[in-house]
Amino acid sequence: MAAEKTKILLDESEQPTQWYNLLADLPTPPPPVLHPGTLQPIGPDDLAPLFPMELIGQEVSTERYLDIPGAVLDVYRLWRPSPLFRAHRLERALDTPARIYYKYEGVSPAGSHKPNTAVPQAYYNKKAGIRRLTTETGAGQWGTALAFACAQFGLDCEIWQVRASYDQKPYRKIMIETFGGVIHPSPSNLTEAGRKILAEHPDSTGSLGIAISEAVEVAAQHADTNYALGSVLNHVLLHQTVIGEEALLQLAKVGETPDVIVGCTGGGSNFGGLAFPFLREKLAGRMVPVIRAVEPAACPSLTRGVYAYDFGDTAGMTPLMKMHTLGHDFIPDPIHAGGLRYHGMSPLISHLVESKMIEATAKPQRECFAAGVQFARTEGIVPAPEPTHAIAAAVEEALRCKESGEAKVILTALCGHGHLDLAAYDAYLSGSITDHSLADEDIAAAIAALPPVPA
Amino acid sequence: MAAEKTKILLDESEQPTQWYNLLADLPTPPPPVLHPGTLQPIGPDDLAPLFPMELIGQEVSTERYLDIPGAVLDVYRLWRPSPLFRAHRLERALDTPARIYYKYEGVSPAGSHKPNTAVPQAYYNKKAGIRRLTTETGAGQWGTALAFACAQFGLDCEIWQVRASYDQKPYRKIMIETFGGVIHPSPSNLTEAGRKILAEHPDSTGSLGIAISEAVEVAAQHADTNYALGSVLNHVLLHQTVIGEEALLQLAKVGETPDVIVGCTGGGSNFGGLAFPFLREKLAGRMVPVIRAVEPAACPSLTRGVYAYDFGDTAGMTPLMKMHTLGHDFIPDPIHAGGLRYHGMSPLISHLVESKMIEATAKPQRECFAAGVQFARTEGIVPAPEPTHAIAAAVEEALRCKESGEAKVILTALCGHGHLDLAAYDAYLSGSITDHSLADEDIAAAIAALPPVPA
After folding, report:
1. Quick check: B395 and B369 in contact, CB under 8 A?
2. How many CB atoms lie within 10 A of CB A145?
3. Which residue ranges does the record assign to the Tryptophan synthase beta chain-like PALP domain (chains A, B) (predicted)?
4. pLDDT per position as a tens digit, B14-49
5. How high is the ipTM of this complex?
6. N or C: which end of chain B has fewer CB within 10 A?
7. Chain B nearest C-alpha distance from A425 (Å)
8. Which residues constitute the domain of residue A142?
């Protein structure tokens, strides 16, 4: 029986050739992005110093489907379509009647979903005559992805990595260099933004917000250099929809329809990539899955942040986006899921939560690692710390099914492997990991620093 | 056109259900394994303290095909059939008319081909009522594979890792622990062999020979404990033939027949696993590929060793095997391809080289890493140091094709990823790696220490 398979594969001939744009199907659009000076909606020219015009066009497009260029499809084929797994062994260990499926993005060159957008971003920048891309990276997944993508199109790649991760995860740096990228710990003294932070906090462990400020500063100063963002923006989530489109095809092959979809959220790109095609189906009345974003309790933008206009970076150089935020100078505790340490959230994901089209929940670190270890011992893949949040939520749902006797179909995205995050597992196995809890007054104080913008 | 695909996949329904036993098709059998005391061929009883009878049976079987148990196939399906890739981007970078295919085993839980044999070994031991497996590991690939396999069948797994690697490569230890294995640095004070070494050399950084002694000692002393070996023996190579069987099916799907097959050799299991099914086809006259083993110039057993009876371990505790050897107390330079640092070679592979049924060549370290970096930047996968030897040989062959204009079909096995070996790439990229060359007199001296056995 097809549903009993372990891996549901797609042939390259079945590879999706279009990205899906959720903006085309939303009942109401998300609030506009504002210029920080004029507080007016930004236009293409405001973004032109950082992004090529084709990506800017994708950022604001309301076309339902956008063609994936052939050169991008060619690179995607190095690992796409990615496999969908039925977690038979995890199900058995949980003794649940639920059927758990996971879409595995760890087969990519970087080991995560990030190359899905790195490749088109490098492609469009190369096409626009750009010579170099700059970016930030947290745990290093995004930096690795962009370094790989730049190698494919002959672009230079310069990366600022959050120092906490740079120090914790030295292998990421080497992998980025193996792909030909150049990497700096952030805050660095190579930029104005970095020097300012270091003057005030010489021991700063950094944050994605600070690293973004550094990368953006360098890109803005050089005409041959653009900036690339690995999450948050509409065009990034657009590129990631190949995940959900493939998963839809794969589930259909085994005659399954998801009842619950869970994905981890940092900036929102993995979650959006998985969920948006299913949300399209839900909006069209073809299925009724519960769709749930899972974030770390230590950085709870969706569950404890405020929905307001805020900067995307710490230095306040970016446009203002309406999103769930903990305040742009909030510095999350250095939890091991570096990719989920972002003060804000994709405006599109925030809009969906605010519109109650999707749910959000938060998980403490130890519950996530416990799920990650159980997953490794049953399914054989050591997950990155980020998707252990999704796995913990899938396990919780499967155990609920065990109580209720419901044979729900649970779908999640295993967005990356943890081969370069093993120090985190060592910390967990040796009992030295703690659950970071945030006091209400600390969150209130961080949010109080929001820029004065009309609600 | 099918041949233009990047990935040639097999559905689970096409998974091979039998292992291929080359012994059934050899014109002459390899010389027998001898008891070190009597110098007579060993029998099953000699191996029974360490291995279950079903594995001993496979070691000496001359049946052409052996059924893979259903429980083993179930675990294989977590990653098998593994993908076969056409290296379009590497070919383009080399500007070669050759068509290069690589069978990728890095998709397995351990990140290499090792689980192909770890899983059946754990299965047969569990079936025989064994409670615990012991083994040694150097760089850690084999230990990881066995820890994973033991987790699948509810066996305890206890591993002695050479202390130098234990200290230098902490990620492997963590991965083993994440899979539930117990790992000790070797020499340890848990065994007689370890205590003896530590008494004489308290700061000993260990060796594979010492680690084997410790693992064998514990297995021999406990009725509920057996020992598992990751390469060299016939049953290990037998289990690995799933690699070549799948590759045969995959090449047939795109209408290709290999002209040249290259694989890296340490103990011989990856190479044998890829090559034996193709050798069967060659012996039957259905194809005529050149089949070439590639070893490191720093540990050149096949190309500069002697074909003679020798011990499998440094301490001289094992039966005597006729093989290409550099002498059982030869200590290879600490090259980064830890999996290729073995003084001997699988007796079966040695017999094939001696019979001129396959060729052998050696590659220096820097040429291999240069090929590995080029591979990573074009194909997106960072190879383990071991298969960079095969990649270097494939690149050499492809460049020969560029000279001659021949459009040869080159097949190789990318037996593992290098995610946990990135320190080696760091050393290469920073220019601190050297090519180790061996003086003829050093090799002659090592070989002079061979045990006195009839030639």
Report:
1. no
2. 31
3. 78-416
4. 999 999 999 999 999 999 999 988 999 999 999 999
5. 0.95
6. N
7. 7
8. 115-229
